[in-house]
Design a protein that fits this description.
Layout (H helix, E strand, L loop, with lengths): L2 H13 L4 H5 L1 H19 L5 H29 L7 H30 L22 H26 L14
């Protein structure tokens, strides 16, 4: 890799352990599932707690996006420590594709939330930066559901790479340092 991303990955390879991706990948999984659960509760308990669930799901979705970026960066570092076969390289390609769509769906959900106003446009109550924005809506929830499905598929494939093919396991890991 060339450019800034390549330099950052090179730095990460020098200072982070080979297992950095498995150490951080659980955060986006948990946060996306939590976001979906909060949104489901928000729909079930509406309108009494509309603002609470809107705020909680917005911030867990925001943290999910940050965790997705961190897990992706950690994955770019961890892949430098692994011996790849043609089969595991193909699996990695699919794993990265699924992870990309996870992040894309979560980002679209977040953007839809930022563009959705509360009906009363009450800026004194909670909203993102008191703009009246950040309301839960079915479209953003659909994209959150899509992100949860994609991160589940990504995790299934990642688990198969580790448990079925030994990717990242000590006896097949090469040290680059």
């Amino acid at each position: 890799m060339n450019g800034l991303v390549g330099r950052l990955v090179g730095i990460g390879v020098k200072i982070l352990p080979p297992t950095v991706h498995p150490m951080v990948v659980h955060f986006p999984i948990a946060l996306l599932y939590l976001t979906l659960m909060i949104e489901i509760l928000g729909y079930l308990l509406r309108p009494r707690h509309d603002r609470f669930f809107a705020r909680a799901s917005f911030w867990t979705l925001t943290l999910s996006l940050l965790a997705i970026v961190a897990a992706g960066a950690a994955g770019m570092v961890s892949e430098h420590f692994v011996k790849w076969s043609p089969k595991t390289s193909a699996m990695l390609s699919h794993h990265q594709r699924d992870a990309f769509f996870t992040g894309l769906f979560a980002l679209i959900a977040w953007i839809v939330r930022l563009s959705s106003r509360f009906k009363d446009r009450d800026r004194s109550s909670w909203s993102v930066a008191r703009t009246g924005r950040g309301r839960m809506n079915p479209l953003s929830s659909l994209f959150v559901l899509g992100a949860v499905v994609m991160i589940s598929l990504t995790g299934i494939l990642g688990g198969s790479m580790v448990y079925d093919h030994g990717v990242g396991i000590l006896h097949v890991t090469r040290q680059v340092r």
